[in-house]
């Protein structure tokens, strides 16, 4: 209950992780830190090379990679040269006291240094070793080079994204490292649960390529069940209509874009009705939209031609509104939609502020404090994270 | 006879989970637990079917049906289903008996719905003081937007992902499906297992309030840090990258066959140039990263011309062999044939009474001693009423027949 120190500390407080990861594994350690693990990042001489990856943030005392800062918040750091016998001996001493080792070296690298799974497991049988690599510890591609672009591509995500008349695209902010790190955290926590019952640790082998399959949701099933291959369709949503109609989801407005779509179901019909009523209030609803019988409207069977006619009238209307107007009207008219946020929109979002998501942390490499998104974990109204909320309060 | 329940083994065997809700973010948490041996009982009802059963193609044979939807099948493998009408007192009582013997409840109804059914967190905790409950919804259960409904694909846009996807001279492109739901799933499973650790350490049960929006914002952190540091608003850049050049997706022979190639430093460029072997690779403006960046449009055109005459698998194979970053842009069919995914058994095939054999993605992480498995397909509505109600809760068959004759098991 509230007030008790023990209950207020994060759930995994007292457990320790040694974090040897590069870019691909950064978020894994960050998530463990979020739930209370004391994560120590062991950097090679000269520091983690990922610190220099663009885009960089500039501070009064230097520059650092935005992703490196973001995904390593809450970790302490120690320089350790695993290339020397002395460094490896020090590492093994640390392993004796550790609960997790996290790494993202090329498969076989730790073995070649004499600190592979067999050695670590014998030294500390309860230890969990989590390896995050592009394709996994073994198999035909286990040694193949891959960066975010290759992982998003071989994992199927690139195929599904982009405009039909241009090559498929990846998201500009690298995502494979996030899928890999987050799902590696899941595997690590499952192994931890098992260890608490048995006392025995395991080696968790995370493949970043396989880590993208959750992002594809049901797209592969179109091929499995029907032999179909869903294609990129720009700002249109496909795969919701048995006639193959695509529903427009991205609409230009006066100061950016909003997202909304013609939908089915009870909530969808209310949303459609709300949009038309708003257009009517502004004198911009054509008769055929005002006359629509939404109660019999079925998004699964409507034809492409019908959808296109409705959408062109709605597009013309939405070009006249701002993002803020859209959010307010969507709220009051129970329309299902949001703005297409930029970083600036998210930074100013009232819900995130009310939930005390943000923390501040001094970053020595930059010589300044930075705000970052922190507490996603809320237990019994207490917001946890790598830093307590600035108000210290319950939210 | 009471039919047999599937045998369970794995890292989470012995864990009992009851699941209320539908679509992605709640049930996919249950899937992750079930694939490692947890007993996950879905409480559902014909009166309020999971949207993944009813609203999402593809269906087996392209014929809609509540037991034919792939979306449901890939999200609910390894689970049990009981059909209880929670608006009846008896249905609610049976749900509570399941909750009493569980360690975890996962729910993703709209905020307040469980309370209205008499199954709010406090009510559940009264009958099971060590219960961990996970509630997941779009924006969390507190704050000015707590009760706002919305679809996952729209929330993906609110969280910033859409704005960063597509071409700089065009409008943003959508990511596939309810992208953000599956971000929240990873955080949700971590949160549930962290909650169980808290209980193991002598704590009482607890309630986890997971906002999908907040988990998406975690991934958006690099773009947000840049904004907070110097006001820089990151934008979409097609396939270009701040570090590697070239960095793109290029056409190969055949319809919509694409390959990804990226070059991360000058040494890699030398290896790539040797593999290409065309006169243009020796042009001085391509020799260093600044030159390649300054001439990126032309460089991309030349590479595309070179790749467009080549068969993709052979091309990717030899570029990779030269130590250069490359991969096929796998389409949905390619995934099932991908040698590495096949090696890892990433898609596992299970049988189903209506759908027949179909592919289900298993866990992307492999635990060395207790790897997760897709052991059986998703349940049909109420498929396990008898083994759960009689076999687990100990109802007699006469009682079961009585329930069947009423409106409780619907």
What do you see in this structure?
The complex is a heterodimer of chains A (395) and B (410). Chain A is of the alpha/beta class. In chain A, 35% of the residues lie in helices and 17% in strands. In chain A, β11 and β12 (256-260) form a beta hairpin. In chain A, α2 (26-34) crosses α8. The radius of gyration of chain A is 25 Å and the shape is elongated. The model of chain A is unreliable at 1-7 (pLDDT under 50). In chain B, 38% of the residues lie in helices and 14% in strands. Chain B has 2 domains: 16-219 and 344-405, 3-Layer(aba) Sandwich (Rossmann fold), CATH 3.40.50.10540; 247-337, formyl-coa transferase, domain 3 (2-Layer Sandwich), CATH 3.30.1540. In chain B, the strands form 3 sheets. In chain B, strands 3-2-1-4-5-6 form a 6-stranded parallel β-sheet, with helices on both faces. Chain B is an alpha/beta fold. The radius of gyration of chain B is 25 Å and the shape is elongated. Chains A and B meet through β3, α3, α7, α8 and β8 of A and α3, α7, α8, β6 and α9 of B.
């Amino acid at each position: 209950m509230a007030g008790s120190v023990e209950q207020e500390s994060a759930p995994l407080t007292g457990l320790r992780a040694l974090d040897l990861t590069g870019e691909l594994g950064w978020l894994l350690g960050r998530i463990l830190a979020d739930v209370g693990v004391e994560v120590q990042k062991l950097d090679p001489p000269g520091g983690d090379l990922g610190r220099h990856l663009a885009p960089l943030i500039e501070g009064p005392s230097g520059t650092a990679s935005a992703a490196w800062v973001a995904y390593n918040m809450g970790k302490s750091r120690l320089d350790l040269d695993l290339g020397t016998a002395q460094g490896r001996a020090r590492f093994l001493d640390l392993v004796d006291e550790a609960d997790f080792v996290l790494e993202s070296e090329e498969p076989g690298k730790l073995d070649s240094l004499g600190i592979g799974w067999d050695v670590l497991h014998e030294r500390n049988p309860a230890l969990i070793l989590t390896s995050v690599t592009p394709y996994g510890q073994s198999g035909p591609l286990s040694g193949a080079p891959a960066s975010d672009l290759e992982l998003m591509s071989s994992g199927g995500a690139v195929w599904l994204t982009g405009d039909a008349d241009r090559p498929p695209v990846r998201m500009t902010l690298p995502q494979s490292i996030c899928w890999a790190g987050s799902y590696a955290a899941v595997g690590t926590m499952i192994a931890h649960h098992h260890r608490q019952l048995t006392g025995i640790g395991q080696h968790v082998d995370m493949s970043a390529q396989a880590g993208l399959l959750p992002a594809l949701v049901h797209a592969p099933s179109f091929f499995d069940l029907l032999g179909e291959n869903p294609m990129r369709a720009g700002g249109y949503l496909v795969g919701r209509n048995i006639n193959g109609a695509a529903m427009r989801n991205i609409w230009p407005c006066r100061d950016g874009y909003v997202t909304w779509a013609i939908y089915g179901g009870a909530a969808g019909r209310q949303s459609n009705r709300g949009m038309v009523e708003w257009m009517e209030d502004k004198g911009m609803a054509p008769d055929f939209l005002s006359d629509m019988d939404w109660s019999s409207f079925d998004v699964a069977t409507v034809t492409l031609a019908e959808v296109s006619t409705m959408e062109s009238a709605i597009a013309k209307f939405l070009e006249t509104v701002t993002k803020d107007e859209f959010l307010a009207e969507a709220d009051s008219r129970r329309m299902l939609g949001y703005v297409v946020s930029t970083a600036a929109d998210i930074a100013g979002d009232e819900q995130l502020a009310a939930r005390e998501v943000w923390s501040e942390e001094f970053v020595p490499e930059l010589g300044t404090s930075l705000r970052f998104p922190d507490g996603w974990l809320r237990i019994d109204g207490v917001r946890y994270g790598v830093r307590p909320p600035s108000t210290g309060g319950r939210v | 006879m009471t039919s047999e329940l599937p045998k369970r083994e794995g890292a989470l065997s012995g864990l009992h989970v009851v699941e209320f809700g539908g679509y992605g973010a709640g049930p996919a948490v249950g899937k992750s637990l079930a694939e490692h041996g947890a007993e996950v009982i879905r409480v559902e009802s014909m009166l309020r079917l999971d949207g993944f059963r009813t609203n999402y193609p593809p269906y087996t044979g392209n014929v809609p049906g509540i037991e034919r939807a792939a979306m449901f099948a890939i999200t609910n493998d390894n689970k049990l289903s009981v059909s209880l009408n929670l608006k009846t007192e008896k249905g609610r009582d049976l749900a509570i008996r399941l909750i009493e013997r569980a360690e975890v409840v996962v729910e993703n109804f709209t905020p307040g719905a469980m309370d209205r059914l008499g199954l709010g967190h406090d009510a559940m905790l009264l009958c099971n003081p060590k219960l961990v409950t996970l509630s997941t919804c779009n924006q969390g259960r507190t704050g000015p937007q707590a009760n706002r409904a919305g679809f996952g694909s729209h929330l993906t846009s609110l969280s910033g992902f859409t704005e960063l996807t597509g071409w700089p001279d065009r409008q943003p492109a959508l990511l596939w499906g309810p992208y953000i739901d599956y971000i929240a799933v990873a955080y949700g499973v971590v949160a549930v297992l962290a909650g169980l650790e808290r209980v193991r350490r002598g704590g009482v049960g607890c309630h986890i309030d997971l906002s999908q929006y907040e988990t998406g914002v975690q991934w958006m952190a690099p773009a947000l840090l840049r904004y907070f540091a110097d006001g820089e608003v990151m934008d979409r850049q097609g396939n270009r990258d701040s570090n590697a050049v070239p960095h793109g997706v290029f056409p190969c022979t055949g319809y919509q066959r694409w390959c990804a190639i990226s070059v991360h430093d000058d040494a890699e460029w030398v290896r790539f140039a040797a593999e290409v072997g065309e006169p243009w690779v020796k042009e001085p403006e391509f020799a260093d990263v600044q030159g390649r960046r300054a001439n990126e449009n032309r460089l991309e055109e030349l590479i595309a011309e070179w790749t467009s005459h080549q068969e993709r698998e052979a091309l990717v194979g030899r570029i990779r062999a030269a130590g250069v970053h490359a991969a096929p842009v796998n389409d949905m069919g390619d995934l099932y044939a991908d040698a590495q995914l096949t090696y890892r058994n990433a898609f596992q095939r299970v049988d189903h009474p209506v759908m027949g054999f179909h592919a289900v993605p298993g866990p992307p992480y492999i635990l060395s001693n207790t790897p997760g498995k897709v052991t059986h397909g998703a349940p049909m509505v109420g498929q396990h009423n008898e083994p759960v109600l009689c076999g687990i809760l100990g109802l007699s068959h006469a009682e079961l027949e009585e329930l069947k004759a009423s409106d409780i098991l619907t």
